[in-house]
Write a structure and sequence with these properties.
Strand order of the largest sheet: 2-1-3-11-5-4
Structural class: alpha/beta
Number of domains: 2
Strand content: 5-15%
CATH architecture of the largest domain: 3-Layer(aba) Sandwich
Distance between the termini: 19 Å
Shape: globular
CATH superfamily of the largest domain: Periplasmic binding protein-like II
Helix content: 25-40%
Length: about 425
Amino acid sequence: MKRIGKLTAAALSTVMAASVVMTGCGSASTNSEGSGAAGGEEAAAAKITIFQSKTEIMDDLNALAEAYTEETGTEVEVWETTGDNYLSDLKTDLSTEKGPTLFSLQPGAESIQMADYLEDLGDLDFVDKVSAGLADEVDGKTVGIPYTVEGFGLVYNKDLVDAEGFTSTDDLVSYLSSAADVNALGLSQEDYFLIAHIFNAPFAVQENPDEYLAQVLSGEVRLADNDAFKEFAQIMEAIRANCTNPADITYDGNCGDFATGKTAMIHQGNWAWSMFADYDMSFETGLAAVPIQGNDKLSVSVPICWYLNTDASDEEKASAKQFLNWLYTSDTGKDYLMNKFGFIPVIDGMTSDGIDPLSQSVADAVAADKIIPWVMSNWPAGIVSTDLAPITLDFFTSDMTGEELLNQLNDAFVNAQ
């Protein structure tokens, strides 16, 4: 399998080059590629069902489904999800005869685990235009088409804090301990926003992240003996001691508190910008690195890909492939990807009318090669919701020490392996 957790500098530079072209993705006429049919055939009549984990685009995805039906006559049904139980719900659905036609997974551990359900997408019209290294390949087949690239770190209010000035864990902890009249740093109760994203940092700053993860899984090393993880434990203890308890904060509430100036920083990614649209934000934002071991790089990778259910009927597969061709090549589809969803382009030649400040920070980090990988993509599938999040919630509602937190998280990795 091609490594998706680590994007090559060349591939990312291609993405960056596409993302900063501000000429607009639409044109007066629909190009021939965007007709909605593969190979010039009429769109198949089979209904398409979509189940995907990116909850923040759900409203726009439903609107896109309606637009596709209007243009092609093919019905598209989007299944709702809360996000946290997505993978387990997907597994349940795929085990029945009524599984979704198209669905999303994280490339890496999730797609490898689900390989038996993944159809070959190598015959899509545009697949050769996917920026190098971004498509998900399993067993030599192109099975996943990337949504976008994303990055996460400390989303901060420039009027309240200079997060770019944090050059060490001590700097960050000092700020968390001294901030007045504002919540210094917000996490939220949902699994990935509570532990997965922020816990990626100490793995990613290792000299060889994947090798270190393998040593953790095999029991060869312990997290509590590693300096980066000791610093992570310091940060978690400082958040518990000085900030609003994440167990009491939802994703929506966390983003709202930041947008209204009640929270100086949240650990989030460029996707959070869509949550700020409902607020009249009067301040500039930035996206800074978690400074464990002096790290000054953002965590950047392909978050999720589209996959096609190999157990779908031939008619459903044809419909789904026509939908993906339309999504990535038609004027309407590209408008939704770039301007409604706010994605950073992953297709050579795709452009955007504009890019929000957080996505621009990701694009700038890509261009400057200031990125660290999403090691979490290679964690055992399901471990975040099943093990890591419950342990972390226990930490935030008890007097568990940071070292005890590390040991419990460590044991979860070993047991999952």
